[in-house]
Design goal:
Structural class: mainly beta
Pfam families: RCC1
InterPro entries: Ran_GTPase-activating, RCC1/BLIP-II, Reg_chr_condens
Number of strands: 25
Region (Disordered): 1-39
GO molecular function: guanyl-nucleotide exchange factor activity
Number of helices: 0
Biased composition (Low complexity): 1-11
């Protein structure tokens, strides 16, 4: 249910912009980092709960994995063990994936969606499952997108935020807990440059470097010092000069301009990286990490890319997701082994 990092800067963590290359069309056509001004640093490669997708340099999309609700967009519900093309979809610049739904942003600013739609997370005005991409009406000039488990967020060129789908905890930010089958504007939020979505909470970064959050807050994942859910955005106090955000299932990360990371929310597995397993209702600094260029979050683990090209991880590790050669939970960042800068 995590979204990966959303970056308010001018480039993704590897400095690339994912320049288009019309000469490549197969599943290995390359991805690169998408420019953070339009789609977030990891937006050309995305993963849902059990499915994965990639944008090639020619703007086509390839998908593989679980497909029980059509989340691969190939017109079937057949699982795919190797990448298959998403038919009829061209000019794509960014992707996002929830638990069982997928979204694609085109160069023309239109948004397309497919897969599970039981709670309206596709935004097409229905609850109908879609096995092929459908255009989301009423949204133009979309610049970035994010997906929670069952809700979807879009940032538009005018720096406003729109949301739809599940809203039982107020994660749509429209002042209600009613689901929305079509995009609804997040209340009172302007000047936004980046967005991220957790399971049932949402966060936004404003151009001034401040962070705003709304939705589920049982573990303090909104960072406002409480565990009270919020139906409209509230500012996370004490955070300034933030350049990137990431959201896990019930925790949130913020990267400061100076290269340090601050984290809050659920911490049972050490995913906040503060050398404890105590939930934090407000931002706490991730221990011993400096010179960080990019961040990402899984359900219950966190990752950082440093300026020197090394990758660091902390949190839950039962499946080896920290990449440190063990299955030991880590409450402090450890370097991922075997990766060359």
């Amino acid at each position: 249910g995590g979204s990966g990092a959303a970056d308010a800067g001018t480039s993704g963590p590897d400095g690339g912009s994912g320049a288009a290359d019309a000469g490549t069309s197969g599943p290995d056509g390359g991805s690169g980092a998408a420019d953070a001004g339009t789609s977030g640093p990891d937006a050309r490669l995305t993963a849902g709960y059990s499915h994965s997708l990639k944008v090639n340099r020619d703007g086509t999309v390839w998908a593989w994995g679980f497909n029980n609700v059509g989340q691969l967009g190939d017109g079937t519900t057949t699982d795919r063990l190797t990448p298959v093309p998403v038919p009829g979809l061209m000019g794509v610049t960014a992707l996002a994936a929830g638990l069982g739904h997928t979204l694609a942003l085109k160069q023309d600013g239109t948004l397309w969606a497919w897969g599970d739609n039981a709670i309206g997370q596709l935004g097409d005005g229905t609850n109908s499952e879609r096995h092929a991409p459908v255009q989301i009406q009423g949204l133009n000039r979309v610049t970035a997108l994010a997906a929670g488990n069952y809700h979807t967020i879009a940032l538009t060129l005018d720096a406003t935020v729109w949301a739809w789908g599940h809203n039982g905890s107020g994660q749509l930010g429209n002042g209600t807990t009613s689901r929305s089958l079509t995009p609804a504007q997040v209340s009172g939020l302007t000047g936004v440059v980046a967005i991220a979505a957790g399971d049932r909470h949402t966060v936004a970064l404003k151009s001034a470097g401040t962070v705003w959050a709304w939705g589920h807050n049982d573990h303090g994942q909104l960072g406002d010092g409480t565990t009270t859910q919020r139906l409209t955005p509230i500012q996370v106090p004490g955070l300034t000069s933030i350049r990137a955000l990431a959201a896990g299932r019930n925790h949130t990360l913020a990267l400061r301009q100076i290269g340090t990371i601050w984290a809050w929310g659920h911490n049972a597995y050490g995913q906040l990286g503060d050398e404890t397993v105590i939930d934090r209702f407000g931002p706490a600094r991730v221990s011993e990490l400096t010179d960080v260029a990019g961040i990402a979050a899984g359900d219950d683990h966190s990752l950082a890319l440093k300026q020197d090209g090394t990758v660091w991880a902390w949190g839950l590790n039962e499946g080896g997701q920290l990449g440190d050669g063990t299955v030991t939970v880590r409450s402090i960042p450890v370097q991922v082994l075997g990766l060359s800068p």
